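We emphasize that the prediction below concerns an isolated chain of 431 residues; any contacts that depend on oligomerization or on bound cofactors are therefore not represented. The input was used exactly as deposited, without trimming of termini.
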Amino acid sequence: MASPISRRTVLTAGAAAVAGLSLPGTTGVAAAHANEGHATPRVRFTLNAEVLDGGEQVTSVTLRTARLGPVDPDGLSTGTFGVHARATSPLPVAEGDAVFGEYDLDRTVTAARLDRHGDIVLELEHGEGRTGGGTLGYIAGRGRNVVLDLACTLTQHTPITLRGHRQITIEDFVQDARLSDPEVDAFGSHVSRSGMKYRLYTPTRSHGSGQGRRPLIVWLHGGGEGGSLPDYYDNETTLRANRGTLGFATPEAQRVFGGAYVLAPQSTSAWMQDGPRFAPQIREIIDDVMREHRVDPARVYVAGCSNGGYMSMKMTTVYPDLFAASVPICGVVTPLQPGGAPLIPDGELARITTPSWLVTSLDDTTVDPRANTVHAHDLIPGSLMTLYDDVVWNGHRFAGHWSWIYVGRNDPSIDGTHLWQWMAAQHRATR
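Result of the prediction step, given as a token string:
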């Protein structure tokens, strides 16, 4: 996690205060080489992002240069353009509060190439644990992730060459208003009748058979991805913070499920703050999606992490006949405050009839794995459990609380059967 920029630094820099996904069109002035060759007045560019296991990062920049004419790719290098990135909170930051994830730095260009449209693409250094590419910031005082205001300044150091050896120097650059992230963009954005926002992925015809009904997978996010009303409720962080939702929309998962709708509601605060009130609001969205799309009522699944791990269990206590399977990840059942009532009493856990597969990691310091996941597993009849020692993926060690990474990659397995395949095999008896 990057060191937070102080409030004084943010105010001095003039941080934007527009909520939601606001990416101001920033103009970058070309370098001193502007007197070399012809100059063109303006080129637009797009920030391209990808959701890694640790969250979304800007991984490249696409310059809309195809309209200038065919660019000679041999004339491009990592030094042709410079990229400076600045990310600030879209919300005012209280005195003494901290925003983790802000930055103001030069990005390293690792490659320069042409895409199939003839536009220049600048690949940027990125990866788990790297500072300076993330799209989200975490406001400590609110306990919430927000989509940062991203402003990128491009500088051209050497002219680009078109066919016929004509050289071009771009006078200024204008940033497009939105990020480009194909996985995120594949989810439609909606609002329920009761005002709860949600994202929905619709399966393609390439998966499944004919015009038959498809399964529905409901993903319930963690506490950091909820809203913070009245000033921040974006319907974005649920997809950009981790691969919990996106994992089920990958081609691999879609093949396993035979083409599935993937639904991600967004709490207006945190599920654990009022699970009994949120449950019917989630149910309303599920019912609407089932009514408006060809969903198989025997194959509705629920999964969630942390706050959402609690809520996935809570949903199966409130609606015992709705779900074919439940996957609570590092969920909470114990009291929020010492001496308080448990979030899910033992009696309710013992009455859960929905097939359940619980996942957590023993080094989770945020939610005690034994007092919550192991305890729930002991009480939920017939439940399965995967208990990891730590959370490591592709050689990078994550915080122990992030065991949802394994679910997003279909890693949990028991006796050779992986989690997604187990879920897909569960069918609820319907009348």
